[in-house]
Amino acid sequence: MATLNKSTLSTIKPGVPVPQYDLDAVKTGIVHFGVGGFHRSHMAMTLNRLMNDGKALDWGICGVGLLEGDKKLRDVFAEQDCLYTLVLKHPDGVREPSVIGSIREYMFAPDDPEAVIEKMADPETRIVSLTITEGGYNFDRVTGEFMASTPAVAADLRDGAVPSTAFGFVTEALRRRRERGIPAFTVLSCDNIQGNGHVAKEMFTAFAKLKDAELGEWIEQNVAFPNSMVDRITPVTAPEDIAEVAELTGFNDSWPVVAEPFFQWVIEDDFPLGRPPFEDADVQLVEDVEPYELMKLRLLNASHQGLTYFGYLSGYRFAHEALADPAIANFLLAYMDKEATPTLRPVPGIDLTAYKHMLIERFSNPEVRDTLARLCAESSDRIPKWLVPVIHDQLARGGDVTLSAAIVASWARYAEGVDEQGEPINVVDPLKDELIPIALSQRENHLAFVQNKQLFGNLSENEKFTVPYLAALESLFTRGAHETVSSYTR
Known about the structure:
With 490 residues, this protein is α/β, with parallel strands linked by helices.
C-alpha cells in the first residue's frame, strides 16, 4: 500500500477531503513546540480549514520536537511530507477522515538547534505556540515560582549553552530579534493551565531574566502572551486506528490522529504582529478567557480525574465503559453541580447545565475509546491545577468538598500501584518514585498522601477537607472503589 505524501494525494479514495490549496505556496508564520495528537487535532486542523477557504496561507506551521520520543514523528513526517490523516469519531460509528496539510515543516531540535533558533528569529515567524504539557512550564506546584534548578533548565542557563528546552530556544530567538530590530513574536500557550498565557509569560520571563536580566525586562515589556482555552478529546493513536485509516483512505499513514467531533478554542485577542482569521473557523476571540478556562478546567478536566481512578479501580479500562455505569456518571454530575459550579464565574454565551450534560455525552462516546490509563497519567501535574483550586475555593466560601475529597482519595488509592485484584498498576507520573512509597504508607498514616505540601499545600491541616477525605479513603480500603463511588449518590 502506498504511503500518504504529496505525490499520492491525487489518488486517495473518493470522499476523503484533502488540502485544496497549493502546499508549496504555504509560508510559515507559526513555529509550534510539541506536535502531539492534540495540536494536530486542534490548531493544525483549524489552520487547514482556513487554508481550504483560501485564507491564512502565510500562517503555515513549522513543528518543533525537543524530546527523544519526537524522533518518530520526525521520521514519519519526512516520509509523508508533513501530511497526516485526522479522523473524527462520531458516537454513532460514523468516521470522518480528512488529510491535514497546514504543518509544512518539522524540525527535531537536537538535529540542528541553530536552525530552530533562526526559524523563530525570521521576521516571517509571528507566533510561537506551545503544547508542552502542564509540567512543561517548570513551576513549583505550591509556590508557583520558576524552578531554575531543574537539570535541563540549569544546563540552558549556563553561558554559551546550546538550548535544549523551550525556554532556551524561545529566549535565544527573542534575543536575536531584539538585536536585529525585529519585533517580538507572540507566544501562544495552548496547554490546559488556568491563565496559561500569564503562566507562560511569568515562566519564560523568569528564565530570560536569569539568563540576561536586561533581555528579560525587554521580553516582559514587549512580548504578548495571550491566554487561551482549548478543548477536544484526542486519545492516543492505537494500532487499530492506523489500520482503519488505511481502509478509509487507501494509503498508509504511520501516525494518524483520532479525535471526538467536539471542538472549542477561546483566545484572548492580543497578537501585535497579526494572526490568522481564527474567527472564520469557529474560534472565539474574547477580551477575557478566564470564565471559559475555569469552566473547562474545573468541569471537564477535573471531572476526568473524578472518572478515571474510580473507573480504573472498579475494573473499567475505557472512559465510555466507566460512564455507562450510572454510579460513576451520577457522581460526576453531582461533583460538577455541587462543588465545581459554585466556584465559576458567569460564562458568556454558555448554558452551564447543558454544558455539563454534554460533557457526560462526550465522555461516553464509545467510538473515541479514550483509555483510563491516559487519563490517569501525569496526575501530579493535573490534580493540583484542576481539582485542588476547586477545593480551596469551596473551603474559602464555606462550601462542601466531600466529592472533591473523594476524588483525591481515589487518586491516593490508585497511586499505591496495585489494583483491587492485587494486579500491578503502571503508574505514569513524573513524581511516581516519590508518590508510590507515600501512597503505600497511608495504610498506617491515612493522611500521608495529602501531607505532601508540594501538591496539596495545607489541606491536610483543614478538618473540613480531611474528614471527608479520610472517610473516602477508609471506604476505598474496606469496601472498594465501586461501592465507594456508588455511596455518594444513593
